[in-house]
Amino acid sequence: MTRRQHAIVILILGTLTTISPFSIDMYLPGFPAIAKSLHTTIDQVQLSLTAYLIGISFGQILYGPLLDRYGRKLPLYGGLVLYLVASVGCALTNSIETLILMRLLQALGGCVGLVAAQALVRDLFPVSKIAQVFSLLTLVVAVSPMIAPTIGGYATVAMGWHSIFLILAGITALIIIAIYFVLPDGKKPDPSLSLRPRAVVSNYLTVMKQPQFLTYSLVAGIATSAPFAYIAGSPDVFMNIYHLSEQQYGWIFAFLSIAIIAPSQLNHILLKRFQSEQIIFTTLVLQSIVGILMLAGTWAGWFGPYGLIAVLFVFLLGQSLTGPNASALSLAPFTRHAGSAAALMGSFRMGFGALVSASVSIFHNRTAIPMVGMMTLCVVTGLVGLLLGQRVIHYRTKKAAVNEPLSEVAL
User: The whole model's pTM is what?
Assistant: First the structure.
């Protein structure tokens, strides 16, 4: 693969992974307008975000076996077409219940991009390059929060919130064309893999029995759920509590996304000197400290809107370091079941994200406490999970090293 082909493939994989961030971020500035238009409350609109995250979580589990059985492209086409149709449905809805349902269907279709992109990284690049490729994907994905809320804010003011979903449908149509003409096929279909429920469950159990996968996929799922608390809570915090406009909120969201973009390429440099495990541990320790300070300061009333933006910026700096390294460590042990592993990893991440975003809505109390509290809880829990998981991995590795010579003697 030439350097130009390498760049084009990463760009397409990046656009596949941006489908969900765009679907989440772009309509955030429209929350107040949606609530007013559909005669409901903003915490009910937040449930449409939760429904989207639930759909992503369950949908990825379904796509994993399909991507392993039929190859990468056929499930991609099916999922993206479903997403496109559901996006049009979101634009035409006139009730919050229908919007929540359409968002669920939208997620069930769009989540194929997340799973397929990660599986294709495992297909097309050597294990030693996976973490670096994931960092590049993070860079592409990180651009979406810079532009999606800004576009959503101006589109809401100029054409109404319905136009947001028509824009998403148009973007998806372009992605489908790019996949057909440019994207390599990746892993070939494997007819030997059964889609019977027992066989599918068996494949997932095989993946979950791998301690390295279970540790780092859970750590990634929990720790990187922190931004979902921010996504769910920030429209209410900045537009209702601090009384900022849709356009101002879009620019704030764009500014904070720089915190994700900035360190993404730093990972390339850090990987030359440190192992992924060391980067994850250090990042989670620093995020936990910042999170505790952010929670204490919010509770004590130290922060106005700009103070909160500043501390959120520092906190979010760690997201693009934990995610790529944990993803690489999760997928490294697999070849044949890479699609199922990617699906399960993504399902964990979005499942925790749905739980976190729902919690922000449930504990909504017209303050920023539910948002910053859940963000802090995510990274602290992720750190504890990392320490416990690494102990299990070390124990299993040591036990295998002891048993291996005994097996040779027995032979």
Answer: 0.69
